[in-house]
Amino acid sequence: MATNGSVPTVTIRIQRFNPDVDKKPYLQEFQVKAPPGKTILDALHEIKEEQDGSVTFRRSCRHAICGSCAMNVNGKHMLVCDAPLREHLDRKGVLTLRPLAYLPIIKDLVVDRSSFWEQYQRVKPWLIPPENIPEKEFRMSPAEVAALRDAEHCIMCGACYSSCQVIALTKQYIGPHALLKAFLRVLDPRDSAPAARLADLDRGDGVYRCHTIFNCIDACPKGLNPTEAIETLRKLVIKRQAFEAARAERQRRLDQPIEVVGEAPALSGGE
Amino acid sequence: MAPSDAITHDVIVVGAGLAGTWAAMSAMEAGVQDVGVLSKLHPLRSHSGAAQGGIAAALNNVRPVAGTGPRGPLEQIPPDAEPIDSWELHMFDTIKGSDWLGDQDAIEIMVKDAIDIVYAYEHMGCVFSRTPDGRIAQRRFGGHSTPRANYAADWTGHVLLHTIHEQALKHGVKFYSEWFALDLIVEDRVCKGVVAMNIQTGEIVTMRAKAVMFGTGGYGRAWKITSNATANTGDGVAIAYNAGIPLMDMEFVQFHPTGLYRHGILMSEACRGEGGYLLNNAGERFMERYAPDKMELAPRDLVSRSEQREIDEGRGVEEDGQGIYLDLRHLGRDKIMERLPQVRDIALKFVGVDIIDGLCPIQPTAHYSMGGIPADADGQVIADAEGTPVIGLYAAGECACISVHGANRLGTNSLLDASVFGRRAGLAIAAFIKGGAALQPIEGDPTAPARQRIARLMSDPPGSKGESWAALARALKETMTANAGIFRDEVRLKTALADIHALQERFERARVMDRSKRFNTDVLGAIETENLLIFSEVIAVSALERTESRGAHARTDYPKRDDENWLKHTLAHKTPDGPALSYKGVTIDWEKYPPQERKY
What we know:
heterodimer; A: alpha+beta; Ubiquitin-like (UB roll); 2 domains; 9 helices; 14% strand; B: alpha/beta; 8-stranded mixed β-sheet; 4-stranded antiparallel β-sheet; 16 helices
């Protein structure tokens, strides 16, 4: 990290590859200033706008909710929009950016996530609702909602997928992202087909393919725990008939108020 | 005839946020067989997903605890208790929020549909936060007189977007992910299709359809400090304008009061809805001076102006005095972790402040585009003040101006607007298709202008060096922030306009560095910049002409609202001499909701 006055200059190495002209990927070096508060995405924008307009990457929201900008930073997968540049330099003060692993490269840091989205679709991510739809909302307890919190918060960035050693071996595996989505539907009291969903996960490339290496947990920029969700699904796969019966029982009360034990807590506001 | 390589669908939707996806899904649900949706991003990256605080609807699930005042705690409404909220109240709040520029017939449709559409999301599996007895949880929001923001923690837009996308997949909508719309094919007020680029291959294609729907989002990227995603470059608005469609009320741009200091990233209004304070450098809750009743929960235009006044008068915080503090410390860890987890993360990561025990610096940030493509409440795009339809062309969501938000949008009404009018547009399109709509013949090669533009961007400039689009975009943002921001006046708006004209001229010499076809985001950036320059001119001209202050349009040289002369919508038509303005009446129920003084 060379310093120029008080603001250091750092080296960013970007893996470049345009399959139309390049035989294989190569690293290109750029120098950027690294003031405090600058993100890796800020640096990428600066490089693209001022040094080399052909450097290609995806991004959009700038605050870790759209999931576009997941890539490999010094060997770790993360979103670059909320990653401070200075905190991610290696011991030599260098930052190396590569595309998400195990996916075909479209250009530079842009990968083809087709297999990722195919698995997402394969688990039928939509709710399969009960036959009787109430006039108002289905009643769900705050605890039932809390159980889905991780799964509903997933932004489908692919950091987990590209960190998964099983995905490295086979794209037939459903993958941590789609299993987390399956978990969301299976655990949702409004879903009517948990047994069919669990049966679909009960395959060689389903829940049993996870080797609990925990890479997905390390990689997730939202701090989610796909491994735990997969573990839960494994247990439910075995007792899916009983689980479906319990679901049917629960669904009989979906239009009924949740019973509150003790005094209901205050909801919102309040200085 | 059209080129033989044209892609054909019954319906083509441009944009895959809430409005576009609702339209596509509803059209298919209503029996249309063949709907294609283009998005320059993967659909789940759309900016609808960045909305945080909630979606408005008078569900009557919660109420303030009796005797605790306007900022006291909330409780679930007991089953046998009187309702406190109604669509009528929601309607009045929206009209007042709009500073009486919203069309009241459209607002009525929106607030009535609100209740049904929130339940529709819930029935499709959207995971809302809940009251103890299992109903959808609601919180307070600025300008709303009751707690009617239905929420999922502080990632409401995210869960709504994922839910509606799942439904679109279930219904078999065909998505063109990472396709960029370049032109709209409109002849004699009949829409025939779009020209688009497959970003991955660089191929430029004619896409023919019986109906085209725009749900292309807003235009906040024309300002330096903005909450908007990099994608929000007003492409649809600029494309429509180029095709001869007027743009309506473009001068009304909302600045959100709580953008993260220097970054502009949204810190949800839910921060204030849950009880947060705004403080100046003396630690004063300065909103006492500007909105003594509603305080921090006054509508966004008013709060942003109040913040800017504090800053301009030297009471701002941080080194450059351009910040204000958002104080959430009194909410306590539990409430913050449960209801504001995302904003806590954002503040931690970007400014290193933990809102549980620290003051978070914020500043006003360009957030929402009230103006856009004029459309009726079925999303039917209109060509003039008389309401002449552009056959086969529809718009909804932030790119459209229906106009439900008038001069200022209330928080949580945007997710609502996009959903309600997206769905209505989808149903209207289905009726149009089933009524016998046909593909229209297209003469010549409609891709030619786009090809020429791109060829020029990739050519070597004559004489000296070409211009960098990125530098032009930066210069535009500087002038729009300084001269067409929260406070405006004649001198500043004329400066903005002159700057925009100079930048448009320089854009003629803009060139890209990347000359390849594959995934060329350099070309995309250039075209997006051209779009920014096109609609920014319309904003400056419309704002200059409107010699009053109304909602988000605050003229320091005309500080009062002027209903006698300006209770009307602006329409800007493209001409060779720049935007030509005409005006359109506002739909007002003079018995029930006549204009009043707007005080909070």
